[in-house]
Structures are given as structure tokens and as C-alpha cells.
């Protein structure tokens, strides 16, 4: 994979994904790691003039320029793990960038509270280091430990905590948890809705997941400020027409909805219909990748167990899904193959997660944004990565 550093000046002409999902033939100018201009080419004369300009990179007719991906739910890659300290985070960041991910949340599964605290501190240390290589670590996503014991598959049941205990841990020592940007919570736990409110008030995004909540309780969590739903369908009861549960509440009320579109976590036949039901402005594609993703590893220790490659899946020995094997570039290809329009899939892997996190300089090809970009084929396959540099 070609990775180009856009630390000085670079000019690109070709079909470009604009904010909101429109595709437009444009001339994009990069300088000092930022996007300096995005000029639509509306007339043949403009296209000829830019095409003759020396140094302009001209995309092929089957290529699209898009924002680099933003993965808000990724446990590891390239053998590195979110809870693997600075070395693990570095390996993870380098592997993710090679797969088109410009930024990510280091996602930590349920573990003893001191291990989660240590992971949060390591993420904060990585974020504070100047000039680091690889994808940018935006913060940490705690997927647990305040999860439903009935829906915690893939998480260490011995390390699950009630909502009040997690609340006390985070708010008794906020400096140790300063890197946390997202927390997945099962709102039906005692104190669950209060934890949602407390996290939201502290500027931390809450995602409803690994939950056995009723539709009413899940909707109450969104009303209390929860911003997203963790990997729709996985870790929750199925949608029933008279008992819609958290899936129905998410479709009705969740501002954003994660979907693992690898064809394993959700059957490929329903990916496109689900994407349409969610809506292009709410869909967030995530990898849920485990550390063996993007590597030749066949097994890796995680979450008090072992993740093992079996066909297209990464499974625990008991057969439960451990997480994803595809990174976000592969997720985009899988979604497009299943019938999700390319522009929708690209937006769901870049603009929407950036919007969820409140980022104004990532996830869009617009003036002032970081020059973190990807070039993909019409099938969504990654061909080139452009990164802003230091």
C-alpha cells in the first residue's frame, strides 16, 4: 500500500467525496498537512486547464478521493492491542494507517478496573507524544465493564461491574480517565441511566450496547444523552415485532448506529436493507477488529480468553465471536459488495464517526481539514493513503 506524506504541497484532480456524500469532479490542493482548496471542475475548459498543470495527481476514472477512515471501535491491529501499552498502540496505529484509517479510538474490552485505568493512561500518553507515526489515536473507547451479564459474550464475565462502581471509579479520579471519549453502557443495570447522564455531562459520549434492555429503557438512555449504539444486533436480543428491544429503540431513537459490515457479525443479505433503515446520516461502520486483524497471527490472547481465526471469523474457543478480522478498508468493500452505495459506505466510515465525536477537522474533504485522505476504487478497494504528516 502506498502511503504519501502531505507535509508540503500536493494537488489532486479527480472524483471527490464531498461533505454530505456528494461525488464531484474536483481539484483539491493540500499544503502543510491541511486541505487548502476544494474547487469543483464544472466545465471542460476547467478540467483541461487543471489537467495540464504540472505536478497535479490525476486520478483514474475508476478512482475516488475520500477522507481517511475514522474507526471508533477497534481493539487492535497488526498484532498490537488497545490495552497493550505504548508499544501495542504504536503497532496498532501503524497497521491501521496502512489500511486507510487516519484516526481511531483505542477500544478496550471488559477487564479489572485497574487494567482499564492503565489502558486509559497509556492512551493519554500516546496522544501527548509529538510526531508519532501511524494513525492518530483520538482517545479510548471503554466497551464495558458496565454491561449486561446476559449479553456480555466475548467479555470476561468475572470483570463485569455495576454502573455505580464504574461511575465511582471514573469520577473519583477523572485525570486518570481523561483519554476516554466513548463508554459502552447497558442502561438497564442499576444506576445505568444515571451513569449515562453523568458521562454525558462530563463530555463523554455514551453508546448503548451489550444490553438486555427493553425498548423503553434503551430509548430513555438516548433521551438522557446517549449518542450511539454499539454494533447493532450483536450483544443484544433480536428485534421482535411486538417486543422491539434495544434494536427497535436504536432504529427509532439512536443518533448514530454502529454496524460491523463484515458479513459475519451481520449477514450480508441484510446489510443494505439495514443501512437504508438506519439512514445515511446515522450509519457508522466499525471494524471491532481484534489484534490479529491485519496480521498473519492465527490466535491472540484477549479478554480473559483467546481469539482464534476460523474461516472469516475470529472466535473464542466456545464459538462466540471475539471481534472482527477485517479492518475498516475491508469493511467498506464488504458493505459495497452487499449493496450499500459506495458514497454511503465511505461517509459511514469517515464523516459520520467524526461528527459523532465532534471533530471539525477530520472526516471530510473540506478547506481547513487535515490532509488525511484515501483513494479507493469504485468497489471501495483501497489504492492509496495520503496522510497529513507531523
Overview of the structural elements:
This protein has 390 residues and is α/β, with parallel strands linked by helices. It has two domains: 2-66 and 368-387, Urease, subunit C, domain 1; 69-356, TIM Barrel (Alpha-Beta Barrel). 28% of the residues lie in helices and 28% in strands. It has eleven helices and 22 strands. It has helices spanning 44-51, 85-98, 113-128, 163-172, 192-201, 215-223, 245-253, 268-278, 328-337, 342-348, 351-356; strands spanning 2-5, 9-17, 23-31, 34-40, 56-58, 63-67, 69-74, 76-77, 80-81, 101-109, 136-143, 180-185, 205-208, 228-229, 256-259, 283-285, 299-302, 305-310, 313-315, 321-323, 373-377, 382-387. Strands 1, 2, 3, 4, 5, 6, 21 and 22 form an eight-stranded mixed sheet that branches.
Question: Which helices and strands, and how do they pair?
Answer:
Elements: E1 2-5, E2 9-17, E3 23-31, E4 34-40, H1 44-51, E5 56-58, E6 63-67, E7 69-74, E8 76-77, E9 80-81, H2 85-98, E10 101-109, H3 113-128, E11 136-143, H4 163-172, E12 180-185, H5 192-201, E13 205-208, H6 215-223, E14 228-229, H7 245-253, E15 256-259, H8 268-278, E16 283-285, E17 299-302, E18 305-310, E19 313-315, E20 321-323, H9 328-337, H10 342-348, H11 351-356, E21 373-377, E22 382-387
If you average the pLDDT, what whole number results? 94
State the low-pLDDT regions, or none: none
CATH superfamily membership of the largest domain: Metal-dependent hydrolases
CATH architecture of the largest domain: Alpha-Beta Barrel
Rg, alpha carbons? 20 Å
**What is the helical fraction, as a range of percent?**
25-40%
What is the tally of helical segments?
11
How far apart are the termini?
20 Å
Overall tally of structural domains: 2
- Strand residues, percent: 25-35%
Amino acid at each position: 500500500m502506498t502511503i504519501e506524506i502531505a507535509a508540503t504541497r500536493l494537488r489532486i484532480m479527480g472524483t471527490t467525496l464531498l461533505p454530505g456524500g456528494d461525488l464531484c469532479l474536483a481539484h483539491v490542493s493540500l499544503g502543510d498537512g491541511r486541505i487548502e482548496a476544494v474547487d469543483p471542475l464544472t466545465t471542460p475548459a476547467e478540467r483541461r486547464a487543471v489537467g495540464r498543470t504540472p505536478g497535479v495527481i490525476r486520478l483514474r476514472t475508476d478512482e475516488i478521493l475520500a477522507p481517511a477512515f475514522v474507526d471508533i471501535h477497534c481493539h487492535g491491529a497488526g498484532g498490537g492491542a488497545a490495552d497493550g501499552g505504548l508499544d501495542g498502540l504504536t503497532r496498532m496505529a501503524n497497521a491501521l494507517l496502512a489500511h486507510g484509517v487516519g484516526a481511531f479510538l483505542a477500544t478496550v474490552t471488559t477487564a479489572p478496573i485497574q487494567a482499564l485505568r492503565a489502558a486509559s493512561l497509556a492512551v493519554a500518553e500516546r496522544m501527548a507524544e509529538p510526531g508519532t507515526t501511524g494513525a492518530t489515536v483520538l482517545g479510548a473507547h471503554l466497551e464495558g465493564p458496565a454491561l449486561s451479564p446476559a449479553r456480555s459474550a466475548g467479555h470476561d464475565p468475572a470483570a463485569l461491574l455495576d454502573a455505580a462502581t464504574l461511575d465511582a471509579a471514573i469520577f473519583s479520579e477523572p485525570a486518570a480517565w481523561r483519554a476516554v471519549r466513548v463508554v459502552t453502557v447497558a442502561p438497564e443495570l442499576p444506576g445505568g441511566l444515571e451513569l449515562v447522564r453523568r458521562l454525558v455531562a462530563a463530555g463523554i459520549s455514551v453508546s448503548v450496547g451489550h444490553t438486555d434492555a427493553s425498548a423503553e429503557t434503551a430509548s430513555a438512555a438516548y433521551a438522557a444523552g446517549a449518542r450511539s449504539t454499539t454494533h447493532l444486533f450483536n450483544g443484544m436480543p433480536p428485534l421482535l415485532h411486538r417486543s422491539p428491544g434495544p434494536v427497535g429503540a436504536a432504529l427509532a431513537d439512536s443518533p448514530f448506529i454502529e454496524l460491523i459490515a463484515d458479513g459475519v457479525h451481520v449477514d450480508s443479505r441484510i446489510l443494505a436493507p439495514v443501512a437504508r433503515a438506519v439512514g445515511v446520516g446515522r450509519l457508522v461502520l466499525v471494524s471491532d477488529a481484534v489484534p490479529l486483524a491485519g496480521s498473519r497471527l492465527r490466535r491472540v490472547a484477549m479478554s480473559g480468553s483467546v481469539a482464534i481465526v476460523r474461516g472469516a471469523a475470529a472466535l473464542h474457543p466456545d464459538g462466540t465471536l471475539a471481534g472482527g478480522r477485517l479492518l475498516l478498508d475491508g469493511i467498506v468493500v464488504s458493505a459495497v459488495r452487499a449493496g450499500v452505495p459506495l458514497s454511503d459506505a465511505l461517509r459511514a466510515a469517515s464523516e459520520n464517526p467524526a461528527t459523532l465525536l465532534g471533530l471539525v477537522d477530520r472526516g471530510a474533504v473540506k478547506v481547513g481539514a487535515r490532509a488525511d485522505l484515501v483513494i479507493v476504487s469504485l468497489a471501495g478497494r483501497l489504492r492509496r493513503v495520503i496522510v497529513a504528516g507531523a
